[in-house]
Structure formats: C-alpha cells, structure tokens
Design brief:
This protein has three domains: 188 residues, Glutamine Phosphoribosylpyrophosphate, subunit 1, domain 1 (4-Layer Sandwich); 204 residues, 3-Layer(aba) Sandwich (Rossmann fold); 152 residues, Rossmann fold, CATH 3.40.50. The chain is globular and about 80 Å long. It has 615 residues and is of the alpha/beta class. The strands form five sheets. The chain has an eight-stranded antiparallel beta sheet. The protein contains 20 helices and 27 strands.
C-alpha cells in the first residue's frame, strides 16, 4: 500500500510528482505529501486527504520549483492519517528526507535506541524512525548516504520500498525495496521512481524493476548502480521495455475508472483467450500449462490461494476444475493458509490468483508452498509483479491496468484464464469429450459479445438501483457456479456503497439468513437457466412467502422468475460453467449505480487500497 513517486533530472519535478501521485492513488489515499529541493533548500508540503488537497495546500505553502523531488500517497499503517504522520519525513538534522511504502516491524525497539541517543520524533510513524536510523548510521559510521541506507536496512525487519535523499547532495537519490514494489524509469539525463510505471509512462518506456533486497543509488549524471542490500554485491540491472500506454490509465470519457473497467470486459476477456484458444484447431495452448503438464496431470490436488475478489474467482475455479478436469480442489484465503500449518505435499499444485501480483498474504502463501516442494502457478494481471516472479510458472490475465479499487475486469479475466486451464487439463486427462470441449470453445468465444449484451441493461439497472439505494442491507443468493458470484456481488456492494450485504448459497438461506427477510430486504437471486434453476425458483418462492424484494438475474426470455420477482435483469444464455462471466455484469453495474447515487467515491472507497502489500 502507499504510492511513492520521485524525480531527479532537468524538468520541474512538481507536476511529474503530483500527476504521478494521482495515478497511484489506488494504492492509498488518506494523506499525501511532497518534498522538493529548490536549488537551495528543502520544501515540504503534506496533508491529510487526497492529492488534490495536497495541490491546494502546496499552492499556498511552497514555491513549486525544483528538479529533484519525492512524493507520497498514504494508506495508514503506523499512526492515524493526519498531517504530521503524512510522508515525506525528515531526519532530526533536517538533511535527509524519505518516503516509504511498507511496515518496519521492529520500529519500536529502533525508536527506543534512537531516543536514548537523543533523537526526537514528531510523528507516530515507523518511517520517521527509519530516516533517523539512516541519519544516525551516516553520522556514526561516517559513510555516504547509500552506505548508510544499506547498513540501516540490514537492521530493519519488515517490508519497504523507500526513496531517500540528502538536501546537501542533491545530485543523488537512494532507493531500496523489500516486499513492496519499486520501478525506476530511465530517461535522458533523468530518472523517475515510482511504485509502478504509470507515473512516468509518457516520459520513458525504459524501466528497471528492483527485486526484493535490492537497492539503487541513482546519480543524475552518472547513472544508476544496483546492489544487494545484504552483501553489497553489484547487480547488473535489467532494463525492461514497458508495454503500457497512457490511454490505458485514463478514464476515456467514463465518469469513473470502475465504470470504464466494467465496460472494458468484452475486450479484456477476448484479450485473455486470444492466442490461447483456437476453435478451428480445437485446441487450447497455454505455455505455462504445456511446459508443466506432468505436474498438473500428476497432481494429488490443486490448492488455490487468493484474497478478496480473486478468492471468489478461485471458488468459481473449484467448480470448473472439479467439474471438467476431475481434479480435487481446495480454495483457501491466503491469510489463513499461510498461518495454519497446512498439509502441503510435493504432488500438490498451488495456484495463486492475484490482480496486482503484490498481495502480501498471497505472496507469503506462495513462499510457504514452495518451501514444502509444491509446484506453484500464478494467475496475475500485473506483468512483472512480485507474485508473477515468485511463482514457478503462470498465466497472465491480460486485462490491462485496473485502477478502480473495486475489482471488475480482473475477476472475469481470472475466471477466463482458469476456465482455459481447466479445459486444457480436462482434454489432456480425457475427462471431457471432443464435442463438449468444442462446445465450450465455441461458447467461450461468444462470451465477449454476450457481455456486451448484458451491459445493455445498464439503464434498467440504474432504475432498480434508485429503488434500493437506501436499503441498509442486501442479500445475494446463488447456487453452484453462481454461489461465488453471489459472494462477489455482495462484496462489490459493500465496498463501494458501504451497504451491508451478504452472499449465500441459495439453499443455505433456510439455515439462518431467512430470518432477516421481510418486506424491506432486497434479495438479488441469480436464477439463470441451466444448473439448478428449478431449485433456485423454489428458493425464490420461499423468499416471496416472506415478502422479501426479489431482484432476479435471469436468462433472456425467462418467464417463471419474471412472475415471482419484483424486478428481473436479463443476461444472454450460455453454458452453466461460463455463466459467472455474464451473471457478474449486472451485479457490478447495480453496485456501481447505487454507490454513485449515494455520492460515494466509487474509485477510492474509504479505508481500502488496491494493492494490499501489508498482511
Ligand atoms: C475487491 C478487491 C479486493 C482484491 C483483493 C486481492 O474488489 O479488489 O478484494 O481482490 O485485495 O487483490 P489481488 O487480486 O491484487 O491480490
């Protein structure tokens, strides 16, 4: 969490940093700050609130000139969001300034030791401890900044991506990472530093992604030197060519990123299967699966680990893998799995699902499984992310950047990748016959068009949203493949509208939740044809008898649910195994419209951050 941006070069740093912070606000947005070296001195401006609040403040507080600067957008860990706890933090001498993403776990003992040496602290943050530790090492050991950072980081336990400079040496910036991402953009006589490449994409396509336990000393005229933090060995940096475009990270005429990303799903899904699915040749080819086919075919079971929406995609995958490929699957919250001493065998395959590829718990679960000898496969969206690098093999979702904090296209593209995998393995194992396999390929290719159809219900969904926007609670019900979709629908509503919502398997309702139903309770029921349609219709009858308000997600042309429900939203017909890809769409739109009507900040819901790099 937290976004960091830095610049050293020949341009004015302020606009690059402020624009960059806006692009990184998905990483945290409870406070923001900037430090500029204006040629003579350090100018710092920081505030609780968003980057626009920082802009307003720095207009009054600082001259915005300087060719060296760092900026931060925060998701609070140590210390409440307030002006003082906002980054950047300055050392006691006033010379060193730092921004930090991560957590220094042993900050209390380090702070105690520094206090004994008469260091004082203004904030409650671990970051202010770190900058003073660096200063202390620099003074005690009489070393340059780079060396001081290295020695200090070897005393630190925790996770970090940091950028630090000394106002007396404004030709140099030091950066380091462990557990939090950090990219350095390389221009002509200039360098950009950021948590991801989006802040500098219009300036350079050349970037170095630091690996864990690496640091770099960046000198404006002398270039960049990368070293290992532990043993000081020199690392030859690998310069990547970025594929990202500016348009991909802009709203493109939509009011919110979330809405744009909902509407991008037809393209995102076809980008996901393009090059992997050939209906003419009746094949699915995925390099990461082909290269490791034996591991998959010999697997005792598949364990899926993920968090949040990605965990819901994992639950859908459990149905698909077991149904089509007949491989036993367990789906685990990464945060539980990593701490509960799970039984992991060498013939287990672990699939980690993560949009950002940076989720701390998922990363830890991967490391645990690897240490026990399991083969680990990643399903990630962000290319080159920590999870993509840590796994033995993987498949990217190719959804393009997802900036809205609430996951939308990440979910449907994760399901698409997992469906392709299940079909490929089913074919290899002979658990699907060729006509079923072909039917799946055909239907999968039609999904983007059908998602477009589903998106046409937007205006109708807005009317339903208006009716239920003031409901304090909402239930979501689904069965089989669509039980995880019910969970995902409820999560979407909760996280962006702050309405309490729960998802349940429709049949589970009788075991408790039915007590909540009265004439004020809206209940979204996924009741598309195929699967357990008749059973779900019976569940709808039960709700109706208790006067609940029913919003049915139904297959085009449905008549039975139409008679029972207060509202219906139609989606095109497809195979049951692919129905989550369509049934999710109206649920995303419903929560989006409710949140907008309630005046909530859809793209940046309170307390959340897109990339959860702390456990
Ligand atoms: C919900 C949402 C989160 C993420 C979760 C995992 O809309 O976005 O629940 O799904 O934090 O993130 P990734 O997929 O990046 O590991």
């Amino acid at each position: 969490m937290c976004g960091i941006v830095g610049y050293i070069g020949h341009r004015e740093a302020y606009p690059i940093i402020v624009e960059g912070l806006k692009r990184l606000e998905y990483r945290g947005y409870d406070s923001a700050g900037i430090a500029l070296f204006d040629g003579k001195d350090l100018k710092v401006s920081k505030t609780k609130g968003k980057v626009v609040d920082l802009e307003e403040l720095s207009e009054k507080e600082i001259s915005k000139h300087g060719k060296l600067g760092i900026g931060h957008t925060r998701w609070a860990t140590h210390g409440v969001p307030n002006d003082i706890n906002s980054h950047p933090h300055i050392s006691n001498s006033g010379d060193l300034v730092i921004i930090h993403n991560g957590i220094i776990e042993n900050y209390a003992s380090l702070k105690k030791a520094l206090t004994l040496r008469e260091y004082t602290f203004k904030s409650d943050t671990d970051t202010e401890v770190l900058v003073n530790l660096i200063e202390d090492v620099k003074k005690q050991e009489k070393v340059k900044l780079g060396k001081a950072v290295q020695i200090a980081l070897n005393q630190v336990i925790g996770a970090y991506a940091i950028t630090v400079f000394d106002k007396n040496k404004p030709e140099e910036v030091v950066v380091a990472r462990l557990g939090s991402p950090l990219a350095v953009g390389i221009g002509e006589d200039e360098f950009f530093i950021a948590s991801d490449a989006s802040p500098f994409i219009e300036y350079t396509k050349d970037a170095i992604y630091l690996e864990d336990e690496e640091m770099a000393i960046i000198r404006r005229h002398k270039g960049i030197k990368v070293r290992k933090i532990k043993d000081d060995s020199i690392v030859a940096p690998y310069i990547q060519k970025l594929q990202l475009n500016l348009e991909e990270i802009e709203k493109g005429g939509f009011d919110h990123f979330m809405l744009k990303e909902i509407h991008e799903q037809p393209k995102a899904i076809s980008d996901t299967y393009r090059g992997r699915l050939s209906r003419d040749k009746a094949i699915i080819k995925m390099a990461g699966v082909e290269d490791n086919m034996k591991k998959f075919l010999n697997a005792n079971r598949i364990i899926i680990v993920a968090c949040g929406t990605s965990w819901h995609a994992g639950l859908v995958a459990e149905y698909i893998f077991e149904d089509l490929a007949r491989i036993p699957v367990e789906v685990e919250y990464a945060s539980e799995f990593r701490y509960r001493n799970p039984v992991i065998r060498e013939d287990d395959v672990l699939i980690a699902i993560s949009q950002s590829g940076e989720t701390a718990d998922t990363l830890a679960a991967i490391k645990l499984a690897k240490s026990k000898g399991a083969f680990v496969f990643g399903v990630c969206n962000v290319v080159g992310s920590s999870i993509a690098r840590e796994t033995d093999a993987g498949a990217y979702t190719h959804a393009g950047p997802e900036i809205g904090v609430a996951s939308t296209k990440a979910f449907t593209t994760q399901i698409t990748v997992l469906t392709l995998m299940a079909l490929r393995l089913a074919r290899a194992k002979g658990t699907i016959n060729s006509s079923d396999f072909h039917r799946h390929l055909l239907e999968l290719e039609m999904i983007p068009k059908k998602v477009e159809e589903a998106l046409k219900s937007d205006a109708h969904i807005r009317i339903i949203a208006d009716i239920y926007k003031d409901a304090p609670n909402c239930l979501y019900l689904g069965r089989g493949y669509n039980f995880p979709v019910a969970l995902e629908g409820a999560l979407k509503l909760k996280e962006i509208s702050y309405i309490h919502a729960e998802g349940y398997p429709a049949a589970e309702m009788k075991h408790g939740p039915i007590a909540l139903i009265d004439e004020n309770m809206p209940i979204v029921v996924i009741a598309t044809k195929k699967g357990h349609y008749e059973k779900v219709v019976s569940n709808i009858q039960e709700i109706k008898s208790r006067k609940g308000k029913i919003i049915g997600i139904v297959t085009e042309g449905d008549t039975q649910v139409r008679e029972l429900a207060d509202h219906i939203i139609e989606v095109p017909e497809t195979l049951e195994s692919l129905s989550p890809l369509l049934n999710t769409i109206p649920l995303q739109l419903l929560s989006y419209h409710i949140a907008v009507m309630l005046g909530k900040n859809v793209d940046q819901p309170r307390n959340l951050a897109k990339s959860v790099t702390v456990e």
